[in-house]
Amino acid sequence: MFRFVDARPELAHWRPFPHTKTGEHCLDILSKPDRLPPSGKGEFFRRTAESSGRAGRRV
Q1: In the list 26, 33, 54, 55, which could disulfide-bond 48, CB 3.0-4.6 Å?
Q2: pLDDT tens track for 6-56
Q3: Of the candidates 47, 56, 55, which has an alpha carbon nearest to the alpha carbon of residue 26?
Q4: What is the largest CA-CA distance in the chain?
C-alpha cells in the first residue's frame, strides 16, 4: 500500500493516512488480550515499532 501511494504523486495527500491507520490497528491488536499469545507480544511490538519507524521516514 505504501509503495502504491508513493508511486503516484497525485495521491501524495493520502500518504499520512495509511501510516496512521496501520499504527492504530497494531496498537488495537496489542491492547486486546485475545489477539496475540502473551509470548508473542514483545516480538509483535518490536516489529511494529520497526515498521512504523520505516514508514514514518517516508511521511
Answers
A1: 26
A2: 899 999 999 888 888 988 999 999 999 999 999 999 999 999 888 877 655
A3: 47
A4: 42
* AA letter at 44: F
Place of cell 496501520: 22
The DSSP-derived string for 23-50 is HHHHHHHHH-TTTS-GGGHHHHHHHHHH
pLDDT of res. 55: 53
3-class DSSP assignment, residue 10? helix
Distance CA 33, CA 21 (A): 20
3-state secondary structure of 48: helix
Opening angle at CA 31, ends 25 and 37, nearest 5:
100
Q: Taking the complete model, does pTM exceed 0.85, yes or no? A: no
